[in-house]
Fold these 3 entries.
Entry 1:
Amino acid sequence: MGKSIGIDLGTANTLIYVKGKGIVLREPSVVAVEGRYGKVVAVGSEAKLMLGKTPGSITAVRPLKDGVIAEFDVTAAMLRNFFRKVSGNTFFSRPKVIICIPYGVTEVEKRAVEDVTIEAGAQSVALIEEPIAAAIGSGLRVASATGSMIVDIGGGTTEVAVISLGGIVLSTSLRIAGDELDEAIVAYVKRKYNVLIGESTGELLKKRIGSVHPTADRGMMEIRGRNLLTGLPAIITISSAEVREALSEQVSHIVDSIRTTLENTPPELSSDLYDHGIILAGGGALLGGLDVLINQITGIKTFIAKKPLDSVAIGIGRVIESVGDLGNIVRFRPR
């Protein structure tokens, strides 16, 4: 039998959990490809540094879009590279893989994830829905009859789910998440200052001074870009309040999806949610003041998971290590 590994295949980052070892790999989901022959020249962190800086012969791409595979061959090459890193560059038998998928994806999209994982070298593949994995990784008792709510804000999707008895009772999958927040910041700076910045700079602003509530403002930050009027390099200073204004529309969509899910939750589970609160996971959970904003609007206590960036990978890992109830959540489908 090969190794058992879990993969959090995210739009922004990929994490790999190996049975008995824990999380052994965290890499950006980025691949640099040589255009003429389609040869992979860099993967992960090395490829991310090339975003927006490559010459005409090389393209740095993110092979996943909105949580699903957009570039099959590139995704397979990326996973193959990650498998080699996990194995320590030595041969190992084909692993059994549990890999996460967004809730509500189509059968075609599920099949694409299975196929690409097999193509990368897996022996067999099992799928687990992201909200379930995030809830397990956040410490929620998903197998119990008590209802719980998880909000997983990743790079490509935001998953809002009410979970009970090991399954998803109600869920909303929103294709507004980290990437769209970065794009909103870029668009705001362009509109207000006539300065063009890259998405990497937008992401840096979000991480360092990103705020969605006045109580969580984190000061100011100096950034560099290109003045669209003169064509020359420009330096401007952006405040947390401006980032909050830039993100307001996207954040309101996320909060609305939480409210809609709460409104449609069965009464018996609603009381559980009020007692136990809402858990935030994923990179978006780290946005300053998001927990305060959700609590203010819904009236329900809101908490950030202990390790929001790792919640999905930890959840998959607990399923792999489990010999109890959690082991029944997924089933392997040998090919």
Entry 2:
Amino acid sequence: MSDTRDRRDEIQQFVERTEGKVYPRRVFMGMAAAIGLAPVAARLTPAMADAKELVIVNWGGDAVKGMQRSWVDPYLKKYPDRKAVIDGTGPSTSRIRMMVDSKKVAWDVMDRNLHTALEIGPEGMLEPIDYSIVNKSKVRPEHAVEWGIGNYIYAMVLTYNTKKWGGMVPQNWADVWDVKKFPGKRAFRREPDGQLEAALMADGVPYDKIYPIDMKRALDGLKKIKEHSIFYTVIADGQNAFRNGEVHLGLLLNTRAWPLKQDTKGLYDWTWNQGISWGACWMVPKGATGGRAIWDFINVALEPEGQAELLKTNGYGPINPEATKLLDAEWNKVNPGAPENYAKMLPGGIAWYAKNATKARQDLIDALAG
């Protein structure tokens, strides 16, 4: 019954999102295909443009405007005879599989993360990145793999209340696990990536020994502070838990910690020390029809100017280290890609998560439920 209700809700949301609006044909057909919906059968009536264009899909919200300004507009300026559009419906793995399996691929370039590229690339879901065209020297070696190349950096960082402990603030994950020195509720996300690494670092595991993750040791560590913690599912809920004073320290995305600091006038802050950095990436679905334009767009998106602009717009760190030179000292303080910040963090283990993410997620859920 819940599957039927979820399906009905998904279709209703699709109708509300599209009815009466104008969409390029491939965007609209891709949106419909992504949920397995026949537009004619569903009696959907958005206007559809016929022009062929490059379709870039991301996760919607402010990221649409940010990527339009930082990457799509410079691409169209360089190639004025081309067209490109952003579809913000989100390239979930299930939707990618549905498109590729049905051979009705409406997307050209997808915004995901590197461990997903390593997970579904070998399954035949993705096109290999054409590195004869795409210049991978613009990113760090760990941000270029066979089926994906980085587009921005984000990080999971230790976030804390600056007034709670009489001038003391936690400096590392061992401090977060010290409930006597730093009493109060902690916050962690109900996902393995970041949480497992924090638990191991708190237990004294050095960066070069984190992977492969010792699941028992990491989960035992999280169990030790479970009664002192909340575990959020939606990232915005974690940010709100800090803002509302429900929690005083814990793990939060840097793109949430930054506005949290601004909103609370410095009541909350974060440290890059022992953060866990991740590379988002461009992936291309198997059967994408954009041709050379796909690789040209990715190359433009790697240019330092647009990378620096995206940080200012959305808080995503430049994947191209050269962008740091275009940012002043104040902007680089909030830039996870700045060399001095990046060096303090653990690069997330994309190869390990590509093989173990599903089981690790279930193991974490089971451990928190026990």
Entry 3:
Amino acid sequence: MYVAVKGGERAIANAHALLAEQGRGHPELPAIDPAQVEGQLGVLVSRVMTEGSLYDPALAARAVLQAQGDVLEAVTLMRSYRTTLPRFGYTCAVDTAGLAPQRRISATFKDLPGGQQLGATFDYTHRLFSTPSSGADVPDRHDGSPDADDPAMPRVADLLGVGALIEPDARPGQDAAEPGDLTREPSVFPMSRAERLQALARSDEGFLLGLAYSSQRGFGTTHPFAGEVRVGEVEVEFDAPELGFAVPLGRIEVTECQMVNQFTGSAETPAQFTRGYGLAFGRSERKAMSMSIVDRALRGAEFDERVASPVQDEEFVISHGDNVAATGFVEHLKLPHYVDFQAELMLVRKLNAEFEEAHA
């Protein structure tokens, strides 16, 4: 560390005190309660949970407050805490096909079985600052949960699948082996699609957004249609081998996105649409959409497509998408590098001397 700093441990303690003072803000203002963050900053909480790989809205709200709004610091807190938790086993795959959406839209069909459901969205706001409100004037509304007698809402991909217009949900032999757990095992390339999806779910939202944008602008081959975006709650079940059946644990809110991409076909495969998939905790539409675009771009080799752009390079995307690893590597530059810099300084001085001597 910075051994030349005066005060040693006392200086570090003072730094912590200053951080807490800055985070508290003006002492005459009431402190923010974590419940307020959880209830009023739900999109931020969803991102911290998704990239922190831990579904716990209350804990994510605490992390946001402790990190003073620094998303990456909050994600790091969540992942650090996650490593201390005991592992009892694995849950069953959630059944998103039966997800009762609070929000469900599709850009591919105007009239969908079950209809479009706008739900809570920024899509139609005017991007103007609203008048501060205490919440007392919020009108009564439906809670966004579908009624019991609502019509069925089949997936758009399933509708296309009826006429074999889209690739099957799972190809024969694809990912037949049990996928690895990237939270416990190192990444090994090439990865299965299931492992890639794990990594993409934990990846930084901004990084995936930039890659998805690059693919649409020509640095890749993916310019899809939003087949369907759903936001709603799904039940999580725990697989208990000693019981012989799955035990319901509760319900979590998720955002699911399926992108529909054109594929002209090949000598062995007829022309059909292909899929990109994204799933994230809470209200995370931008993350799920970006993830689904990048997922499809990384499947280029499956369709014998030319791989020439960064978004299509599995090792590049997966190795650089983790924001905790990226933060650590960038921020470690704040640590002392005295010896390294002195070596570089000596080298530059030597090269300058040789240059002046040669041009004397």
